[in-house]
Amino acid sequence: MAIKETELQYTERMLRDMLAEAAERAEADAARTAKDRAARITAEAADVAQASRDSLLDGLFPRTEWPEPPKPQFPRLADKSADRRSDFVIAALGITLGLICALFPWYIFFNQEQFGVQAIKFGGSGSNSGREGGGVVAERSGPLTAKDVPNADIDLFATGTVEDDPAPPPGDQPFPAAVSEFKMVHVANGRAMIEDDTGLWLVQRDSVLPDSSRVASIEQRGGKWVIVTSTDKVIQLSK
């Protein structure tokens, strides 16, 4: 009798455990179902809100289909052989120009008669023979006459001749010109200021004075400044 009661209790406990587990599973399934339903409802609401927002934006700001941007056009690489030929041509021109600049001064040095000043030779031979000047043939050697020159005011004497005029009679020898008088009025920094009848002048050593002499020195003698000229004339500073 006791054994039967123990089995009955065990069976009841198992049934209660199974019912509890089933209830927990049912509650979990219900919670999962409710969560999925809430997520689905939220997603649907978000889709509806996005659709309404898109429709509103399309009404306010219509969409514009922008054209596809053009593909970039990359430049084609030029022929390398042509570039190389142009480089060779430029290099050859540079070398030629350098050789010309280097050799041309030597050509001028060895041919100076071609680049110097050409003197003009006048005479009755060569390229100047028979050249006419003013209507008169230039190859005449004698003096011109009135028949050869239409203008009678031109001097008829040949070039290089002197007219034989009698020498003037000798007269009295003139006296030398009067010497220009001047005086020294100031001295400073090795220079002196002199005054004559034409104005004031600054002189220093080797300067020409109004009397055609030169300043030999500017020095002090006895506490006074003097100018010593090349003719040993001493000019004192005037007060």
What can you see in these coordinates?
- This protein has helices at 2-60, 80-110, 112-115, and strands spanning 132-133, 136-137, 183-188, 191-196, 199-203, 215-221, 224-229, 234-236.
- By secondary structure, it is α+β, with helices and mostly antiparallel strands.
- The chain has a 3-stranded antiparallel β-sheet, with no helix packed on it. Strands 6-7-8 form a 3-stranded antiparallel β-sheet, with no helix packed on it. Strands 1-2 form a two-stranded antiparallel ribbon.
- The protein is elongated.
Detail the poorly predicted runs. Answer: 124-142
**Main beta sheet:** 3 strands, antiparallel
Q: What oligomeric state do these chains adopt?
A: single chain
Query: What is the overall number of helices?
Result: 3
Helix share bin? 25-40%
Tags for this entry?
239 residues, alpha+beta, 3-stranded antiparallel beta sheet, 3 helices
